[in-house]
Specification:
2 domains; alpha+beta; single chain; 8 helices; globular; two-stranded antiparallel sheet; about 20% strand; Lipoprotein; TBP-like
């Protein structure tokens, strides 16, 4: 593992720059053999809110673009075959964007990748077909290692909060039990992200006339988080001391 970042130097930099940043946490972790180890999270190579195992299971930076395109194209083809709706591909040139930090005020070895999107100004006529599309996108995403895909109202933060769930149902209800004017779903892993959105304002009871005139929208978006080029061995080496340890919350911002 490379040299750690001096906590004193970080603190001094914060004071001098008057940024008010927090000191990276140091925790104690009990190993399986009964020994304990002190972990300085300034040295963590990933990110506070990204699962390292998901990252290691995600195709590498040199493979992710072809992988993402293959996933998107598989969805495009099957949706067209099943519904007759042709999703147009946008943003075929993928882009990489570096992370600002590891969530603890130090550099990370991770970078994000934004791929192409599929879009259409049409949605299936029947809500049952919306659910079929959801099933298609969820299945193909899982086949490509992304998933599970969960609808917004089934996400834990909505499902387990009566106020959030009631707000969702009131906002998007069509008046038909179990049918909504919005189907929003996304995969829950840290490595790959697939997001599906289908919306038809004309179906929404609470929509204004102006909102209804905007028309339907249908989109599928893909992105991923990967290890920087040539850094996988370093990532694994620096990650090893943190194996099994519970990550503290980010000292910088909420995900």
């Amino acid at each position: 593992m490379g040299r750690g970042i001096s906590l004193g130097a970080l603190l001094l930099a914060c004071v001098v720059a008057l940024t008010g940043c927090s000191i990276p946490p140091v925790t104690t972790h009990a190993r399986a053999d009964g020994s304990t180890v002190s972990l300085a999270w300034a040295d963590y190579p990933g990110h506070a809110y990204v699962d390292a195992d998901d990252i290691l299971a995600t195709p590498g930076i040199d493979e992710i673009e072809a992988h993402g395109h293959a996933l998107i194209e598989a969805i495009q083809a099957e949706v067209a075959a099943e519904t007759g709706i042709h999703l147009t591909m946008h943003g075929g040139e993928g882009q990489f964007h570096g992370f600002d930090s590891n969530g603890y005020g130090s550099p990370t070895l991770l970078t994000s990748y934004s791929c192409c999107s599929l879009v259409a100004e049409a949605v299936p006529a029947e809500f049952a077909d919306w659910m079929r599309v959801y099933g298609i996108v969820a299945r193909i995403s899982a086949e490509f290692g992304a998933g599970p895909m969960i609808r917004e109202q089934d996400q834990e933060w909505v499902r387990d909060d009566p106020e959030q769930l009631a707000e969702f149902e009131t906002t998007w209800t069509t008046g038909v039990e179990g049918e909504y004017s919005l189907l929003s779903a996304w995969t829950t892993g840290s490595g790959q992200s697939v997001m599906l959105t289908m919306e038809d304002p004309a179906r929404r009871l609470a929509a204004s006339d102006a909102e209804k005139e905007t028309g339907p929208r249908f989109s599928v978006d893909y992105s991923a988080t990967v290890i920087e080029r040539g850094k996988r061995a370093e990532f694994e080496e620096r990650l090893a001391p943190f194996a099994g340890a519970e990550k503290p919350d980010s000292t910088e911002w909420e995900w």
